Give the backbone structure.
Amino acid sequence: HCIPADSQICLCGMTLSVRSWIRIGDWKDGETLYRHDVPISQSYVVENNLATTLCLQNRNEQCRQHLERSIELAPFDWYNWSMLSRLNEFEGNEKEAMIDYQLAIENGRDESAYERLALLYLFVKQSPQDAAQLVQTGVSYYPNNSELWVILAVSRYQLQENVLAERAARQAYQIDPSERIKAVLFAIVHG
C-alpha cells in the first residue's frame, strides 16, 4: 500500500510547516533562541551569544558560565576572552582581567582589549611604561584609533616624555577633534 505522491508532498509540507512554526517560537528573543541551541550545537559562537545576552541583563554568574564553556570549546578565540576580561574588570578582578585581555590580544589582536588592558596598566598597575609599550603595538595595527593615541599620550606624559606625549595627543586630535581630546592635548602642551 503506497501513499500517493501528492499526499506525500502534502504530508512533507505539513511537517515542515509545523517544524518552522516551532522554530519561529525559538526566535521569541535572543536568550530563548540561544538556550534552545546551546545543548544541541556545541558551538562556542552560540555560547558567546548567550553569554553576551546574559551580560547585557547583568546576569553575570550565568554569563561567566557560558563564557567559560565557550573558552573550553574554543580557547583560540579572542571574543570569549575579551568578554570574560570585561566581566572580570566589571567585578573588580583586575588581575584576572589583565591576563584575559592579553589572551584576547594574542588570539586576535582585539582592538578594545588593547585599550582596556593599557588603561589597567596605566591606572591599576600604575605602569605607564607597560601601557606605552602595549599601545605602541596597538597603534601599529589600529592607527586610526584615537583612544589608543590618547592612552599613549597620557602614558608618555607620565613617563615625562613630553615631546612624544604631545605628538601622540596631536595624532589623537587629528583623528577625533573632540573637546575631550582637545583638553588632553591642551593639558599636555601647557603642563
User: Anything to note?
Assistant: The chain has a mean pLDDT of 89. The first helix runs from residue 5 to 26. The two ends are 93 Å apart (CA to CA).
